[in-house]
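User: Can you help me understand a structure? I only have the sequence.
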Amino acid sequence: MTPAPAIPVALEIAVTSPAGAIVARDAGADRVELCVGLELGGLTPSQALVEATHETGIPAHALVRCRPGGFTYDIDELALMEREVRTVLRSGAAGVVVGALRPDRSLDEDALRRFVDAARSVSAHAQVTLHRAVDHAADPVATVARLADLGVTRVLTSGGAASAPAGAATIARMVDAAGPVQVMAGAGVRPEDIAALVATGVAAVHLSAKRSVGGAGHGGVLMGSGDDDSGHAVTDPAVVAAARTALDRSA
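Assistant: Let's start by predicting it. Here is the structure, written out as tokens:
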């Protein structure tokens, strides 16, 4: 019997704008994760931002995260994110990126079920990714073993480490435990790290491929505690292209 051909490892780029999605698309990305507040770990994008990004033609998976900080949410926050799941999918997102933990750092399975049910109520084909809340879980490997039963499509992880390259050994264990759920390596990924991450067996790699532009525009009059006047991030086509090349060479 002829073995089935290997499925290519996908390239996902985190973007914060339609312009970033176009850069990612034209430089060879397979899909994008769309969010705002990337410097905060990412927050839910607006309806208009999802609609405009959808119009670029590249599949966009919208992060649904109502605030920065930890991943333990109260009843009102969960209800809000459940509504956001439906809103971003109705606005053209191909999938959602969600997550929640209990205070003991176990996966909040009830919350995940609510998010999955909300997504599939809009589209039976909506993809659901568990975000890096998994890296804050007490046991990331045991956590991914539960995801197939919850209807989750994939999980984004650094293997519980500060970066995916540092967590590569754990990522390989997560791949073994995940069953049909796709494991995607992300956090601190550079094009030169991709070959080693592909060797863990992941289905995708994720990076922001960003560079900073602007800055020094406020004249010292800052706009909030998180405003350091250093500019804003944009998607760098050279980094996306280098990542694409690295993936193709690892095939």
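Now, to help you interpret it: The first strand starts at residue 10 and ends at 15. Residues 135 and 165 are 14 Å apart (CA to CA). Let me know which part you'd like to focus on.
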